[in-house]
Write a structure and sequence with these properties.
This protein has 3 helices and 7 strands, in the order αββββαββαβ. It is of the alpha+beta class and about 140 residues long. A hairpin with a 7-residue loop joins strand 5 and strand 6.
Amino acid sequence: MKGQMTEIEVEQFLDSKPGWIILSTIGADGFPHSVPLGYFRDDATIYLGCKDATQKVRNIEGNPKVSLCLESGSTMSDIKGVLLRGTATIVREPAERLSLHQLAARQRGVAEENLPQSVSEGSAYIKVSGYKVTSWNYGS
């Protein structure tokens, strides 16, 4: 079916991880700031790992409204993607960061006995929730 994806198709597309997701924030100068990041999904929440005190983190602290864009395909006949517009928060608390780090590892197939037991100093997670989905699928 051409057009928008169903909610299940959106979740499957996000979970397929066809590439880096593009996080767009708004800087203090009012201009968009867009960067590619790795991500993972936990139900209706998207998490992005990053270094704390970077431009994207400062932008979110000033304006928590963000968008995430993920697309795949190389021609108009097979391009599909999603645009998620929601609210971001910064996760800095060590125990919560470790829990998220372990969740991401589990999703990558890491065995329980090999899960990370610490997080990098100066790391953070961007948590995006409450997002509105716009999707497209030009394939058949």
